[in-house]
Automatic annotation (TrEMBL):
Keyword field contains Amino-acid biosynthesis: yes
Superkingdom in the source lineage: Bacteria
Annotated site (Part of a proton relay during catalysis): T48, Y111
Pathway noted in the entry: Amino-acid biosynthesis; L-lysine biosynthesis via DAP pathway; (S)-tetrahydrodipicolinate from L-aspartate: step 3/4
GO biological process: diaminopimelate biosynthetic process; lysine biosynthetic process via diaminopimelate
Name assigned to this protein: 4-hydroxy-tetrahydrodipicolinate synthase
């Protein structure tokens, strides 16, 4: 299933655990089923909200395999496969492709703080090495590095399989710059629930969302209203859930969203 036309509410799904720290796969299955029923447009497994940095490689693979199996082709499944090591990111990406995902979400190299040239070469090397759609993931607050609009546009122009960016820098001017400069082939997703409605009204393509874990049906509706330019319905739904979106970040994600799910 391609993601070239993917727009709307893409949940960055949480990873449930049992009291003893084991993965709770039965609960995960029921969460996935609920999202499909509620109209969520795609699922990101093993993203930031899925606590990937704390999962072992085996747990990572189990979660990806389980998501693909449970979704069973009904909506796209996207796997987080980024690393600050280019070679590790390629390894994780190839494994996820082998497990049947529809696309990869690849975060900018964290901790290393590469230059623009380093960022470009990291993603260029991955794009050449894997045969799958890639979503760039810019989240400077966590990585300490930044994928500038200029580099994102250049990567999209240079590599057919770089098809989207998740922009989570929290800046509307950055969204405006991305949307003004992007080629038609590059989708722009908000990585920030709070800015997603405004970004969609400027021409973005939806949100890779935290709060969609809690309100999948209504968040899908909010994304569709803003994508379709329905400002009145967008405003009504946005203000209905404004406080909930703010509460999702009173502590580091995913602490609040997992508390709410529990």
């Amino acid at each position: 299933m391609g993601i070239e036309n993917l727009r709307g509410s893409i949940v960055a799904i949480a990873t449930p655990f049992k009291e003893n720290g084991d993965l709770d796969l039965e609960t995960f299955d029921s969460l996935v089923e609920w999202h499909v029923e509620q109209g969520t447009d795609a699922i990101v497994v093993c993203g930031t909200t899925g606590e990937t940095p704390a999962l072992s490689e085996d747990e990572d693979a189990i979660m990806i395999e389980r998501a693909v199996k449970k979704v069973n082709g009904r909506i796209p499944v996207i796997a987080g496969t980024g690393s600050n090591s280019t070679q590790d990111s390629i390894k994780y990406s190839k494994r996820a492709i082998g497990l049947g995902v529809d696309a990869l979400l690849v975060v900018a190299p964290y901790y290393n703080k590469p230059s623009d040239k380093g960022i470009y070469l990291h993603f260029a090397t991955i794009a050449k090495a894997v045969d799958a759609s890639i979503i760039l993931y810019n989240v400077p607050g966590r990585t300490g590095s930044n994928i500038s609009p200029e580099i994102a546009v250049r990567l999209a122009n240079d590599f057919k399989n770089i098809v989207a960016i998740k922009e989570a820098g929290g800046s509307m001017p950055v969204f405006a710059e991305l949307l003004a400069r992007r080629p038609k082939s590059l989708k722009v997703y908000s990585g920030d629930d709070f800015l997603a409605t405004s970004a969609n009204l400027l021409g973005a393509d939806g949100c890779i969302s935290v709060v969609a874990n809690l309100i999948p049906g209504d968040f899908h509706q909010l994304m569709m209203a803003s994508l379709n330019g329905d400002a009145e319905q967008s405003r009504a739904l946005f203000y209905k859930y404004k406080s909930l979106m703010e509460l999702m970040f009173v502590e580091s994600n995913p602490i609040p969203v997992k508390s709410a799910l529990a």
